[in-house]
Amino acid sequence: MKKFSLSLFLKNKPWLHSKEWWKSPKVIVGTLTVFLFLGSGGYYLASSSSAAYLVINGEQVGIVVNEKSGQDLIQSVLEEKGASLGVIAKTHDKIVFEPARINKDEFQPVTEEEIQAKLSTYIEAGAITIADQPTFVLPTLEEAQKLLQSYQDSFNKPSDSNQITEVSFEENVGTQIVEVSPDKVLTPEQVLEKLKQGNIQKIEYTVQSNDSWWLIARKNNMLTMEVLAANPGTTLDTKIKLGQKINLEKVTPYLTVVSTGTRTDQETLPFDVVSKTDSSLSSGQTKIAQAGSDGQKDVTYTYVQKNDKIVSKSIVDEKVTKEPVDQVVAKGPQKTVYVASASRGSGRVSGLGWPLNSHINSYYGYRSGSMHTGIDLAGHLGDPFVAAASGKVVSAGWGGSYGNMIVIDHGNGVSTRYAHSSKLLVSVGESVTKGQTIGLVGSTGNSTGPHLHFEVMINGDTVNPLNNL
Ligand SMILES: [Zn+2]
């Protein structure tokens, strides 16, 4: 080659016939150029090597030693992405490797982090669908199916006394495979937690006239404590104003498990309290002549249950396993002064209504060692209460530990008492009709807070109002 190029020089350049042709400046420059070219080329080949560009969706992401090492990097990114879910992630991205030459000294291979930033990954996960909408995504279809099963099981404890006939979902529930980004996938524990919590919606409620915490709870099908909990810093005593905005957190279940079955429960038969006159006792004195004891019965019923609440129940069998024993209270001969003028009779009660639309704070019967002669109905200071039935007011005024109280005689030996009132709206001798407002709730007499103490008396002796309402 060198010889050939020299002969070309010889042929075309007459000055080459001179014996000193090599001293020509053109020859020297040309020759040096040839040597320089060969020298740098050799250096280039020695200090560089072949590599590959990693190209994701048409974009050069970086350089890898070769296609094999690039594939390994991609694979470990996919494994990493699915690791917490126990699966390997996948990608729909177009990945190609293009030939590259790299300078060995400056070679910086692409990192897993750089690939992660550019590569979109997905996993084939198992979704729980509600009304055909994928709602919760689990790592696999099997896990989605298993979760639905264990959610159903969580509400049902089959046993000898609880035979379950059928379990189903009220909603249209299914499972399906979905392609999702790994960070959208939940663990079975997380899904179970969400299902148990339900769908929490925050809503604002505007206080209406006559509202109380209790009434707001009742209107919204919630418990009073749930309403208070949604309004931090409030208690039952916190006053609310008309038009005031308060928070309610309404929880609707995502899924409703409907179970039907037959169950047998043991129920307590509470003992009755009866009184007898004992002339050896002085007026107003009482003593327990016979201690009462509760009885027991087995009640078998079929039921329909939605999640953890029984929504319908029908009794198929009742068996008393232990009879209750009456509590007999001996009393001094004189009747209490407050009902002295009440009628006497058969004691047949019918159509007694609730004097206050409220819940019971304390029941009739022996409470921490002493007899509670009525029921305590929760109320706020000033709440109006009404006559339980038509009748004649036989007492209206101060009654010692009863505070301001009213006794209404309904005839036939039946009378009712309303105690601890803040204000009495009727007076002795007045005729009242059922449902007529007769006083306002208060906390007078022996009382720890505003409530209505309500008694039903038959021929002067108190009976359990709940047996007569
Ligand atoms: Zn009471």
Automatic annotation (TrEMBL):
SUPFAM superfamilies: Duplicated hybrid motif (SSF51261), LysM domain (SSF54106). Keywords: Signal. The keyword Signal applies. It comes from the Bacteria. Pfam families: G5, LysM, Peptidase_M23. One of its GO terms (molecular function) is metalloendopeptidase activity. The keyword Signal applies. Residues 203-248 form the LysM domain. Residues 255-335 form the G5 domain. This is Metalloendopeptidase.
